[in-house]
Amino acid sequence: MTAAVHVLLVSAQAAPNLLPALDPALKPAEAILLVSQAMRPRADALQRVLREAGVLVSRVELANEHDYPALEAALLDLAAERAGQAIALNLTGGTKLMALAAQSIARTAGWSVFYVDADTDEVIWLGERAGERQRLTEHLRLRHYLMGYGFTLGEREDTRLDADRSQLIATLLTQIGSLEPPLGQLNWLAQQAEDHDRLTAPLDERQQGNPRLEALLRHFAEAGILAVQGRTLIFADADARAFAKGGWLERHVYQTVARLSAELGLRDKAANLEVIDAGGVRNELDVVFLARNRLFIIECKTARMDRPQAPKANDALFKLAEIARRVGGLGARGLLASYRPVRDAEKKLAEALGIELVCHAGLNRLEEALRRWVRP
Q1: Which residues span the domain enclosing 119?
Q2: Taking CA atoms, which of 69, 119, 244, 290 is between 20 and 30 Å from 266?
């Protein structure tokens, strides 16, 4: 029997509270959020998702989540106020003291109690139904997942690739050793055009006389990305300019993720997804997907990261770790996919930050790397 009311302990992790509350077999008419002062922003985000799904939401504000007697008193008041209602306590979130106090009162008040195993998509019942497991049938999509962490979503990018662009990407990967230097020059030219809001970039004498760059530009020209007229590089359009600047790697990574969707049980995925926080700050996620109710974020880099004026690999790693934590919570995971190799010091930093690396020639084994990364 579905409880009419869920009591939710609000924490930094949104998924365990959202999954049962949105599941057709468990969805309540009302959710009561137990909210500490520190978790008010998380509660606001959770409330928006639940109300959009048609669930009535009320809140119990907790003055001090470290004061066990005060927690018990607040829960006793709630139990008295809701006497006679069918209530289920989701014990997954909150602090340990909140969970202990809530479980104690639930036992006294006769509430059902359950715990959510987000990795296995199961509700584990406790108390009188101890040991009983119930499979969740509702799978979170990116929109609800990210809303649960306080973010709204911009439009998703068209990720289709035609045969010519697919062949170009294959060439860039199979010839990664010889094409790496000229690709850096093309990145720079595309960036210069973008910075000046143009579809053209001038070629200097050194660039015109560079056989490797000329060969690379022919590959891009054959795919319809650009053309060379005299000393001017002309991009077909803004999308082609972005593709030449590094968007090709994002498309490749996304297409690889898409091929593995069924095998790895991916729930939702997007490329170049813009997320906007409550303060209006915007971040763009190159490739993002949900698996096992966790957020996986991939940052793609094709430019050199070892020049004085270039973005540093260390900066990219720190930024990726921070975005993963802020956008997807503690369970989120990040991966840096780089056309360039990274140094040993950066590999150690990535390991310390919990960031996976797929760099340089390793991109030709991307499917294998993704399988290792995503599977539990």
Answers
A1: 5-138
A2: 244
CA atoms 96, 102, 103, 108: torsion sign = positive
**Domain match, 81 and 202 both:** no
**pLDDT per position as a tens digit, 302-326:** 876 655 444 578 888 999 999 998 8
Query: Does any domain span residue 152?
Result: no
Neighbours of 109 (CB within 10 A): 18
Report yes or no on 302 lying in a domain: yes
Residues recorded for the chain: 376
Do 328 and 295 form a contact (C-beta atoms < 8 A)? yes
Tokens standing for residue 295: 């957020």
Residues 191-237 have pLDDT tens digits of: 999 999 999 999 988 888 889 999 999 999 999 999 999 999 999 99
Q: What's residue 308's pLDDT? A: 46
* Total tally of structural domains belonging to the chain: 3
The reply to whether 147 falls in a domain is: no
Q: Do 24 and 67 lie in a common domain?
A: yes
**79 shares a domain with 52:** yes
SS (H, E, C) the chain: CCCCEEEEECCCCCHHHHHHHHCCCCCCCEEEEEEEHHHHHHHHHHHHHHHHCCCEEEEEEECCCCCHHHHHHHHHHHHHHCCCCCEEEECCCCCHHHHHHHHHHHHHHCCEEEEEECCCCEEEECHHHCCCEEECCCCCCHHHHHHCCCCEECCCCCCCCCHHHHHHHHHHHHCHHHHHHHHHHHHHHHHHHHHCCCCEEECCHHHHCCHHHHHHHHHHHHCCCEEEECCEEEECCHHHHHHHHHHHHHHHHHHHHHHCHHHHCCCEEEEEEEEECCCCCEEEEEEEEEECCEEEEEEEECCCCCCCCCCCHHHHHHHHHHHHHHHHCCCCEEEEEECCCCCHHHHHHHHHHCEEEEEHHHHHHHHHHHHHHHCC
Report the alpha-carbon distance of residue 245 to residue 185 in Å, rounded. 10
Q: pTM for the whole thing?
A: 0.88
Q: Are residues 106 and 190 in the same domain?
A: no
